[in-house]
Amino acid sequence: MTSMSDVARAAGVSAATVSRALRGEPGVSEATRRNVTEVAKRMRYAIARDASSLAGGRRYAIAVLASDVGRGEVLAGAEGALRQAGYDVLLYVLGDAAARAGFFEEMPLGRRVDGVLLLSVTPDEGEAQALAGLGVPVVSVADGDLTEALRLAAAHLIGLGHHDIALVLPEGVDETYDEVLTAQGLAVRPEWTVWCSPTVIGGEQVVDVLLDAERLPTAVISSSGEAALGVFLRLRRDGREVPADVSIVSLEGKELTRAVGLTAVEGAEREHGERAVEDLLARVRAGRSDAVVRPLPQHLVVRDSTGAVG
Amino acid sequence: MTSMSDVARAAGVSAATVSRALRGEPGVSEATRRNVTEVAKRMRYAIARDASSLAGGRRYAIAVLASDVGRGEVLAGAEGALRQAGYDVLLYVLGDAAARAGFFEEMPLGRRVDGVLLLSVTPDEGEAQALAGLGVPVVSVADGDLTEALRLAAAHLIGLGHHDIALVLPEGVDETYDEVLTAQGLAVRPEWTVWCSPTVIGGEQVVDVLLDAERLPTAVISSSGEAALGVFLRLRRDGREVPADVSIVSLEGKELTRAVGLTAVEGAEREHGERAVEDLLARVRAGRSDAVVRPLPQHLVVRDSTGAVG
DNA sequence: CTGTTAGCGCTTTCAG
DNA sequence: CTGAAAGCGCTAACAG
């Protein structure tokens, strides 16, 4: 492990100068800086993060708080970008409420990270305050916006000539999102907004409800990938063809929808993870300590479950 | 941030004694240790890992190398256990070959972690050497063993009276696993071992192949969850009932099989992650620096895709 | 059993 | 622009 003074000796300067040069601090002649940088690289010098941190310098570590490792792609993207930038990733999984409460109660990050990345974690009042107390920048990657996803899905279906579109929402959501649909010129029938559990079974039950109505929609948008699958399975079992008789779009469930071939709205998670890191590190370097949230951009992936209205 | 000397002062002893007491080192009277521990807790003292590490003590950090964040459950379990034990998790995602090569080339872990946890990463010769060079214990959590999974699935089906069982394997695997089946008293027909891509489409094609044969098996075991889903979908479309006509067991694909209700072999990932951490930390405390691999234990989850042979 | 004395490898004044 | 010196908070010999 070559240390900073090793480099200093080899470059014929003092350790202080090496420190300044490598960090890009002002007050070092360009010639010296170039030389030091070159020598350091040649010697494969890597800074001792502990020492830097202890001495009050940068800590070269970012805390990543994930609500769940399901959002794995964003994590993978962020990790890659951080590693490349020479930062450690301190991972914290805030899955259940207990783990989350415990984390914010202990706040084990004091003086240990240069920034915080939030993955699908929306802090409440107190949590935000705890994070702010760290005095480091916080960037949070939010989940994809449902309204936006819905807009994308509806536009796709309308483009295919659909007018009769049912909307499947998870139980608990009390909005209807009618405005989003009517804004695109759709006539919304109340019986075509159905709530169900976000499961395959839930989706299957939705079909029963839909079949009871006087008219079957030509397309259904499901906010849950699993429910979308349920709709798909039950429709096929009932002898309806997808997409010939009914088109299906899911607003979520990348893996599942991809496996089965359902048209779906997806997020660019990996790239977004990388972007978020760039943003965060820029804030770190600027010495800021504010908080931003960056919504996940989404796009539609057309597969085999949507077609022109027959 | 209260420091060790703060605690020392409050407890009326020297910093060295606090250090010894808190780490459980021998050479401290029980009375002193109790008192110091009590004072430390009261003052909510948390050790400065940087300083400890720099001074040559413990680093309170474990590197977790994951081949992919898909194996998220094990990661979540491990993270929880480590956090509880007061250890940081330094996450490295070794997804693609490039990232992996880059990691082992740089080996950014020197003097920075107390141990390494490998998640579905099987190091080759050189990689193992690089890890050994760290001088810390390495525990690796392997994927579930296919042979074992197959045994579980076969036993379940045999218990239901099945004798005619087809086996769907991923392309590239050149084994037939006949012994595993024959060992359980099954007569294996060569046309009932089918290779396909681990996708829904692959599974659908398998059914075509199977239907061409002179006799349809009463059950199929698929090593891929997605292929199992393909088999399921195609059979239903062809008018066969599952499980009335054909039973299906998947050897993988927790999420997918759970969503659709397929009987499957699953691993106890979360618990195993916690176990692995216990194991690793025990080695850390014992000052060892060896390497072990712990295969993921598996069990069968019976759902709706298997039934008694008709 | 306990305290004292040195550093660990950096960053940061403070001088030159 | 550069160097010398002090110190971050711990652990590790040494003495008592």
Number of helices of chain A: 13
What does the average pLDDT of chain A come to?
93
**How would you describe the oligomerization state of the chains in this entry?**
homodimer
Q: Give the helices and strands of chain A as they follow along the chain.
A: HHHHEHEHEHEHEHEHEHEHEHEE
| CATH fold name of the largest domain in chain A | Rossmann fold
- How can the largest sheet of chain A be summarized? 6 strands, mixed
Q: Give the CATH architecture of the largest domain in chain A.
A: 3-Layer(aba) Sandwich
**How would you name the CATH homologous superfamily of the largest domain in chain A?**
Response regulator
CATH class of the largest domain in chain A: Alpha Beta
Helix content range of chain A: 40-55%
Helix and strand composition category of chain A: alpha/beta
Low-pLDDT segments of chain A: none
Task: Specify the overall morphology of chain A.
Answer: elongated
Number of domains of chain A: 2
Distance between the termini of chain A: 70 Å
User: What is the number of strand segments of chain A?
Assistant: 11
Major protein interface: A-B, 45 and 45 residues
